[in-house]
Amino acid sequence: MSRQDRHHPGARGGRRPGARDPHRPRRHQLRPLLADGPLIIKPYRGSQGAGIEIVHTADRLEGIDHGGDVIMAQRYHEPDGRDRKIHRIGEELFCVERIWPAVTLDDKLGRVELPPHVEQVVRACGDALGIDTYGVDIIEHRGEPWVVELSSLPGFKGVPEGGRRLAARALQWVQDDRLTLAGR
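Now predict its structure.
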């Protein structure tokens, strides 16, 4: 087991997270889901789109090899347009629309206004987890927003003065903790 695995909160009994986990789906369990449409398969430790595959057939599902690592699967919905990366820092929201996969820096920095129905979904994600600083990737399919991924520690690319905003939020957390500890 690698050092990274040992310190991962999901590590159990010296095994890789998810190893021999009875709740982890096996490929044969994913096959029937293809009857309702394609799946998107992601490696557990994927980053920057590496290893992501859109799977339409059972044969292709069986052909995917991530070296025995845990995979995640979710329903694939064809996006109506560009992907949205939305960052929340406290109460502020910042939206970047981009192509996927992003190739150039300009592909990652196209800031846009956030439609209210998408803002509602973004805030609900953080509220459900009790966090107010995170990133959410959302696509729209047939006019409905779909959460693709949530990260509690995204890169915050495209957030104006992101470092300053994050530092200010961190200082606010410290101040809030002091008041809580002081009984105020």
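The CA atoms of residues 122 and 160 lie 19 Å apart.
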